[in-house]
Amino acid sequence: MVGSPSADQTGLPEGWEVRRSNTKNLPYYFHPATKDSRWEPPAGTDPEKLKEYMAKYHSSKGVAPANLGPQDGKIRCAHLLVKHRDSRRPASWREPRITRSKDEATALIEEYRSVIKKYEANPNDPEGKSLSELATTESDCSSARKGGDLGFFGRGDMQKEFEEAAFELNKGEVSDIVYTASGVHLIQRLE
């Protein structure tokens, strides 16, 4: 694509564009005229258009994770996070202010879990998607840019409920619904 994509394509307010960080290899939002840069989308963003644009041009399929090799006592997981208004930070790259209830967040996660189960039963099912595919467009965590991949972590690195669920999983397995102060999660153990 030559030049910057238009606001019609990205869903960002006029003047804003998506760039990729050289140090973190992650997309961020930049306004060249004001030199304002941020990890979260600016106010006035159309979340549906941004979601489509990010899935098409900033999907992580085939991108190697930052922490490449396994480390003693550490596991690697991906997750899909749905925040709610009582989450410790009720905002995300998708929504500047999250107002859904915990019950609504749980209902969304349950829908995502059924889509993942369809994919696990038959990867060719058009109604199924992997956790990584869903996380790229639906997760309220910035790890969405990496298909939900959190890299390697050890005990004591994550919130207690998240850690306990993650360490109980076998490689490739997706957790049941996990509640933490951050919101509602599905976790998949990658390594």
Automatic annotation (TrEMBL):
Q: Which GO terms describe its molecular function?
A: peptidyl-prolyl cis-trans isomerase activity
Look at the named UniProt entry and state the broad enzyme category this protein falls under: isomerase
Q: Which domain of life is it from?
A: Eukaryota
A Gene Ontology biological process term: positive regulation of transcription initiation by RNA polymerase II
User: Which keywords, in A-to-Z order, does the entry hold?
Assistant: Isomerase, Rotamase
User: Where are stretches of biased composition, namely Basic and acidic residues?
Assistant: 120-130
Question: Under which EC number(s) is this enzyme classified?
Answer: 5.2.1.8
For the keyword Isomerase, the answer is yes
Per UniProt, residues of the WW domain are: 10-44
Catalytically driven reaction(s): [protein]-peptidylproline (omega=180) = [protein]-peptidylproline (omega=0)
Q: Where is this region: Disordered?
A: 120-148
InterPro entries the UniProt entry points to? PPIase_dom_sf, PPIase_Pin1, PPIase_PpiC, WW_dom, WW_dom_sf
Q: Which GO terms describe its cellular component?
A: cytosol; nucleus
Q: Which residues form the PpiC domain?
A: 72-191
- Regions of compositional bias (Polar residues) in chain numbering: 133-142
Q: Show the Gene3D superfamilies listed in the entry.
A: 2.20.70.10, 3.10.50.40
The name of this protein is Peptidyl-prolyl cis-trans isomerase
**UniProt source species:** Trematosphaeria pertusa
